[in-house]
Every structure is written in C-alpha cells, then in structure tokens.
Amino acid sequence: MHDLVIRNGLVYDGLGGAPYQADIAIDGAVITAVGTVSASGREEIDAKGQIVTPGFVDAHTHYDGQVTWDPYLAPSTMNGVTTAVMGNCGVGFAPCAPDRHQWLIGLMEGVEDIPGTALAEGIKWGWESFPDYMDVIDKSPLALDVGLQVPHGAVRAYVMGERGARLEPATPDDVRQMAKIVQDALEAGALGFSTSRTEKHRDKDGEHTPTYKAEELELHGIARAMGETGKGVIQLIADFRDVDWEFAMLRGMVELSGRPLSLTIEQDDRHPEIWRKVLDKIAEANEAGLPMRGQVPARPTGVVLGMTASLNPFLLYQTWYEIAGKPLDEQVKALKDPAFRAKLLAEQPDYKPGEISTQLFTGFHKMFKLGDPPNYEPAPEDSAQGEADRTGRDPRDVLLDWLAEDDGKALIYFPLMNYLPGDLSYVEEMIKHPNTAFGLSDGGAHVGILCDASFPTTFLTHWGRDRTRGDTLPLEWLIAGQTRKTAELVGLHDRGVIAPGMKADVNVIDFDNLTLRRPEIVYDLPTGGKRFIQRADGYAATIISGAVAFREGEPTGVLGGKLIRGAQPRPAAARAHAAAE
Ligand SMILES: [Zn+2]
Predict the structure, then answer these.
(1) Which of 85, 104, 112, 463 is the most exposed place for a label (fewest CB within 10 A)?
(2) Is the pLDDT of residue 529 over 90?
C-alpha cells in the first residue's frame, strides 16, 4: 500500500529523454517507484491521457515580502511551480536594521513594483539578521518549497547605511562586514547571494539601487568569503554598457569563489548588440571551466498596459488626469467621447529620449492587443502602429479604442525586451544557447505592470505545442529545462527528476487542454492593493512533498512546503540517473 499512486500517465521525467508510459508510487514526501505499480495507493490519480512531469522549479522570483503573508505564492503555483527561489537581483528584506524597514520597502517598491503600502501592512517584521529572517520563513505556513538568497542591496544598506544608499564606495572594513553577513547567511542555508548593476532598478524616489556601482574590492571581497564557505550560487543583473570591463569583474567573482554564477540575458532595443556579446563571454568562461550561465526567459519581458493596470500610454498627458482615479465605467465613457479624445490627442507630452518610460509610452509599433488566451508572439502588422498605417489613423487614436474595449478591462501587451525582430527568434537563440538556463519570471514582482510568473506554462504551450511563427521545441527538453536544470542551477539535486528516491514534487497536466489565460487584476494584496495574477487551465494536480497541494490551479489547503536550507545533495536512495543529453 502506497500513500499515493499516479497511474497511466505519460511521464516526462525531467532528464530530457523521450517520455514513457508509467505509474508512479509516492510514500511520504518521496517517489518510491516508477514503472508498473501493482500495490494500490491510499489515494490514486488516474493520469490516462495526461502528462506527468516533475514540479517546476522557478529559480528567479521576488516573493520575499509576499512569502511572509501568503502560503500559496500565486500566481507561480497556478502555473505548476513547486519550488520558488527568491532574493534575486540584490533586493529583499534581510538583513534590516529596525529603523530601515521603510527604506527597504521603498527599494522593493521601486525596483520590483510591489506596492509599498501592501508591504508595510503585510510584512510582519520579526527579524534583523538574515538568519533571523530565515527562521521566520521557516515557521511560516507554506504550500510549496521556497529557497532564499541573501540580497546585496539589503546587506550594503545594513552595513553602510546612508553611505550605501548614496552609492559610495565600500571601505575595506565595510567589505569585511558585508562578507561576514553573506557567510553567516550561507551557513544558515541561504542558497546564494544576489546583486544588481542595472540603471533600470531604482527605488521609489528614482534613486539607483545601492549596489549599482559596487566596486571590484567589494564584489571580490564578498566572492572570496563565499569561496571560504564553499556554499551558494551568485545571481545578478548588469547593464554591461562596458562589456569587457564589467564582465571581467563579474567573471572574477567566479574565479575567486569557485561558485556558479548566473546573470540576466536580455536584448534591450537601446543597445541591441550587448546580449550576444555577453553570451559569447559566458561561453568562453565555460570553456575555461568556470560555471557561468545566462538566465533567459520564455517570452519578452512583457509589460501589460491598460486602464486597470498600473501603466497606460497616456500617463504623461495632462488631459488624462481629468479622468484618472474615476470609476472605470466613467473612464470608458470619456475614452469614447470625441471631445475628450480630441483634447487628449492635441497634446504632445515632453518625453525624455532614451528613458525606458519613453519607449513604453511611444513605442506604438510594440503595442499589441493581448487576447484571451494571450498571444505572446504577435506580428508587427497587428501593432497599434500597424493598424494606424493600414487605416491612416493616429496610433494613439487606435489605442484609445483598444483601451475602451471589454468595458475598459482590455489589456495591451508591450514586449519591452527581446522583441526587436518582431518575433521570438532572439528568445529562441537565447533558450537554445548551451550555457543558459530558464529564469527571469520575476514571480511576485512588478505586480501591476507585468505577469511573467506564467513563463513555465508558456514554455509548454507556446514553445512545446502552439508556436506558428517559428519552430516548436521538443517537450521533453522544455520540461527538463524548468525542472532538473533549474533545480541544479541553484544546487537542489533532490528534485526536478521523476525517479525513486527523489522528492515527490509532481505535476499531472492535461496537456492537450493546457491553456494560459489572460492576466487579470485582483485586489487581494494587504490593504487591498492590486496585482496581476494569471491562471492556466490544465494543471490537473500539483503534488508537493507527496500530497496534492493544488487541483486545477486552486489550493487544496495542504501546506506541505518548507524553507529549503542550503544546497541539497541527490538523496542516497535515488538511483544514479544520467541526463539524456
Ligand atoms: Zn529579478
């Protein structure tokens, strides 16, 4: 008698080889048999006609605040995620001096677009040090497993106070203190250390993130300290405007620490050549034996614009503020009012050339209707500009019509990064690169402007089945890419593969009917703050630590998740398995 038996499913085991028909037996939190299981289970799931995969491991999320009040971490769990790693991009909430709570919230609000009021209300501060924070999360109820990384921004602000926030260079003594904090965090079970060097990350007042200009002395000092522990991964985002200099410094972190490093790969229209240079350098580093990976997405970084979203293309127009804040139905009425439209379109706001916001508000060639199910690879001729060219109209006039659709709930998709060719060919190049790993979903962040936590579903539906504007990719490869490989990326060798002895995190998916829905705004943050969530049809069961935690994407109430402390070796009971590639 087993605790749970999943019968008759088509198993994609996470190793990357061809799928096979098998039953899976689970006892406690561990997979105990894969093949023909004759004993019955206290609970059985008939997966006939469905596929069975390891639970998805999302190594790049920002649930650092949400995890203190929400055991379910939607929308990632609506998309098959069973392990979420947070503390990415140098931001998070520990360590934190008692008088700096509000400052850290401002940093998270600005960098990751998580409403400060929700964070202030939702976070029950019960920590100062990073190990204290881990203890608080350890005691929190959780439906899924979570891993934490120690964020450089918080560490720097803790040690250097205002000097750190003002981007002053760290002194040797500052570096010693930061290095000690990072070591203590790794010893307490942090999975890694993260930092940010991008001008895109600003706090709520528009100031650069504190780590933006961290110098070699500081980064290498921390890296050496990581090397002494022999623990943890390094994760970061950088602009690479001076690719040779910046990459060499970051590569030095790997050389000094011996720890694996992954960094964001994205194609920015303002500097469209940088991403390939960075990938070439990553390949060179690997040839030299240095474990470096590019983190790559399933889709463009997709900003969602609309009347219910945080952004829309008219935010810089004075006339817009005649209706901003009014009830949605009144706004929609104004959008249809010829006098209001004429007044609005007569305006020409002052755009700052080169700013991301300018791209977002004037890039009409990259504004697309986001349908349901959403189309994440729209054709250029379907953009607002394309429609305007076809009909001889002002693209802004087209947008006013689009915004009013669906009683004002319509959404406009803006593929900010990775969409220069007008299709996903750059993304394809990124995900096929031998030294990249799937990531960048940013689950829990940017909650009012994008919803990329659904990347795992897009990998299956768009790349594995539905793509028409280019090739699809083998499903077994895609599944391995977001299970075993993302688990290995952060040192978790106990999950991500369906085999006896491995952790029993499993998805049962009605793949033929797997459908990503359009993002929707919900008002469920503490203090009623709004955020996007994104559901998917077809996740029949998501099993976490051996029990069904989600059915059809909805929580069952089972809270079998826990805080992961440190890298996890392959369980002794797990048979040796080799990847198929
Ligand atoms: Zn991030």
Answers:
(1) 112
(2) no
